Amino acid sequence: MPRLRGLSFTFGLLAGVLALSGGVAAQETAPRVLEVKLANDINPVTQDYVVDAIERGEREGYDAVVIELDTPGGLDSSMREIIKAELDADVPVVVYVYPPGSRAASAGAFITLAADVAAMARQTNIGSSTPVAVGGGEIPGDLRRKVINDAAAYARELAEAHGRNGDWAEQAVRSASNLGAREALEQNVIDVVAPDLPSLLEEIDGMRTEPKGFVLDTAGATVDTVEMSLWKRILDTLIDPNIIVLLMSIGLLGITIEILNPGLIFPGTVGAIALIIGLFGLQVLPISWAGLLLMILAAGFFGAEAYVTSHGALALAGAVSFVIGSLMLFDPAGEEYQVSIWVALAVGGTLALLTAIVVTKIVRARRAPTKTGREELLDEVGVVKSALAPTGLVFVHGEIWKAHADGEPLFPGEHVRVEGIGEDLVLEVARVEEPAAVSAS
Description:
Helices cover about 50% and strands about 15% of the residues. It has 14 helices and 14 strands.
């Protein structure tokens, strides 16, 4: 009996160990999903953020990468880089238009169509992918046909390669078609409608994707969430065209003031920092060289105003060049990245006004009589200290000077004005009946 009890205890212990190890093994093999939150326009900063997240999903062996998307669209170049990352990924990429009220418009529709699984939450929409000209207008003539045909073929190919409705994808480009989540599911534009992420992961579990043939393992997955870092959010803010124009104008103004008034330090330092940050924005976004050259020309006009007598004509030309250049600067970036005309007018007018103030002060300083050395004593009023008959001493400008006065003698206590400076620094003075000011008593 003791031996049987010992065997029972041993078998029970082994069974417990096996059960425990099985639970640990099951826990270790539980699927993992990387959730990527993207509620922004599509630009170079968000492009890097999404591409890096997809690469992380591959590198760290996640079972799927879910991009929660809410975007009005953005740059075509950035959109295509994200799509390339989706198509090349060795991990299933799920694009989920979420939360309710979100949209996958313009570039966002293309990104959704390129996903291994396209999903939407209720009360979301997708579409409106017609390319537009800079400023939001119609693209003219033959160029419009080329751009529309290119985008329509791209959308159709992305949709059909993933087993979805290519006809609608083309209409989203040609006719700006837009669908809500339920209609998109009915018309085979997307694969799933789910109320939240856990429900989505349960519903797509076991789904086989086209054309890569992934079989999804997402039920009960552990979800790791990644959001844009503080640094990327700062960069995303700094590439706002209005902020770039403001920074560049501050930079040009600060450096100009430092050049005209060497040694102030503060304007030059602030100007250099603002200009460098503004140039970063120019590096990130595609720009029009004509617009940039106009802004450089404006800086030249503002600077020349201090040296050329133009009665304000150069400052006005600088303001006009700055406004036109600002409005043209981000033409290649599209309608999402245009400088507000009111910002351009406000900055241009402010620069012209400040330039006029600075130039006025410079002109006044140049026209003012010299007030250094001997000339500083001219017209100063002083007091006789020892009788001038005709030569004596006077107290003027805080010092005792030897002075000479023609005519009647002048006695101590009388007031005199300096009218000239003779040889050996002898002041030429004359009596003042009622002095308006005395330099010293």
